Amino acid sequence: MSRYARLAFTAAVRAMQVEQGSRPAHRAELGAGVGLEPDPLGERERAFIAARDGCYLASVGETGWPYVQFRGGPPGFVHVLDDRTLGYADVRGNRQYITGGNLRGDPRVALFFMDYATRTRLKLFGRASVRGLDEDPRLTARLDAPRAGGRVERLVLIDVEAHDWNCPKHIPHRYSEADLARTHARLDALEAENAALRARLTARGEPPPR
């Protein structure tokens, strides 16, 4: 059983999987020590996170209610510091500080990194900690770019506990401005190639392709 499954598949979850007939699909061979240590981030996970321009982050408050916020910025604003640690510069938002306050009572967080264009989702469990900007100037400088615009108030580090990839089912196709710009650029290039080919054929006296 993976580390992610050990954390997510509680007794109640496993009971419901049995009730709904999906438990065999989630059963995995349990080797010695498998899933007991935090999952390291592999090359695929590191590259995927570094390419994202946003993520969903969930925390839990003292009332027991979860809170989800969207964190956005330029691709790579969530920095992969090593194979077990993420970090980002926390920029001032609406000044409710719900996530920041929640982390003071419970450091556990869950993150979704989404690529809607390819319908790909990376789920991650971790433990977040907050650092002051003056605590580690080198770290502050490292997380300062790229980052979301605005005033940086603190640094957030996330020690990765576990991660898992989701199937694309029910993830809608959506495209960012950057995705559309690349598509338009490719179409423009193809149209230019087609026009050049037609011009060469016309100069030779050959009929252009239809």
Description:
33% of the residues lie in helices and 29% in strands. The model has no long low-confidence stretch (mean pLDDT 89). A hairpin with a 2-residue loop joins strand 3 and strand 4. It folds into three domains: 1-37, no CATH class; 39-174, Roll (Pnp Oxidase, Chain A); 175-210, no CATH class. It is α+β, with helices and mostly antiparallel strands and 210 residues long. Strands 2-1-5-6-7-4-3 form a seven-stranded antiparallel sheet. The longest helix has 27 residues, at 177-203.
Number of strands: 7
- Integer-rounded radius of gyration: 23 Å
List low-confidence stretches. none
Q: What is the CATH architecture assignment of the largest domain?
A: Roll
- The amount of beta strand, in percent, is 25-35%
Order of SSEs: HHHHEEEEHEEHEH
> Averaging pLDDT over every residue, what do you get?
89
What name does the CATH topology of the largest domain carry? Answer: Pnp Oxidase, Chain A
The number of helices is 7
Shape: extended
What is the level 1 CATH name of the largest domain?
Mainly Beta
The percent range for helix content is 25-40%
> What is the total domain count?
3
Distance between the first and last residues' Cα: 57 Å
Order of strands across the main sheet: 2-1-5-6-7-4-3
Structural class: alpha+beta
InterPro entries: Pyridox_Oxase_N, Split_barrel_FMN-bd
Domain Pyridoxamine 5'-phosphate oxidase N-terminal: 43-131
Pfam families: PNPOx_N (PF01243)
Protein name: Pyridoxamine 5'-phosphate oxidase family protein
